[in-house]
Amino acid sequence: AQSYTRLSYPISWGAGATHDFISNTSWVGLHIEFGHAVHKNSHFGFESGWVTLYDKLPDYIETLENENTAIRGTQYRYFNVIPILAKYTYRFETTGSIRPFAAGGAGISYAERRKDVGIISIIDDEWPVMLAPEVGVTYDMGGSTLFTLSAYYNYMFARGDLDSHSYWGVRVGFAWE
User: Fold this and answer.
1) Could you count the other beta carbons within 10 Å of the beta carbon of residue 42?
2) Closest C-alpha to 101, from 113, 110, 90, 111
């Protein structure tokens, strides 16, 4: 049986309510995955990481209401996510060095949505359930090193004060088997 470790860099964009909250491209994050072959082309593993989406509302003043307080000022918005997922990956049979794969993850994530205005922060954080499909390719670089490129989508269900949120992106990285 064969195990693998994957380390990659995510470039992410908000979707739906997340895009309404933050429309910028995120260049901040890290993804790590560990897995073990359960069949010739099937792997079961665990995935975690960290993605931060952020935005400064340029020259934009908004009045926020938090209970009985009004706050005016330039807004900085952040959305931090740390997923903790069980993951199944299927790598398709091919001849040559390039192999496509499809994967699906499910688990929980720590999610924090934050608005900063001056020295005041309004924070909603929860541990929602997350679903995470992914498709991509690996390129065998020789030895036990693979170059990986994939597209992913992460969806978090609403929980507590945090509405449902989703984001998608591209991951570039390396895997070792």
Assistant:
1) 13
2) 90
Decide: 151 and 132 in contact? Cβ < 8 Å.
no
What are 110's strand-pairing partners?
82
C-alpha closest to that of 162 among 119, 96, 111, 117: 111
- Position 61 scores a pLDDT of 64
pTM to 2 decimals?
0.89
Task: Indicate the SS3 state at residue 1.
Answer: coil
Longest dimension (CA), the chain: 65
User: The dihedral of CA 124, 12, 41, 48: what is its sign?
Assistant: negative
Mean pLDDT over residues 72-78, rounded? 86
Residues in the chain, total: 177
Percent of the chain clearing pLDDT 70 (strictly above): 92
Weakest mean pLDDT among 32-46, 52-66, 88-102: 52-66
| Nearest alpha-carbon partner for 100 in 66, 134, 57 | 134
Residue that has been written with the tokens 């065998």 in this structure = 140
CA distance between the termini of the chain? 11
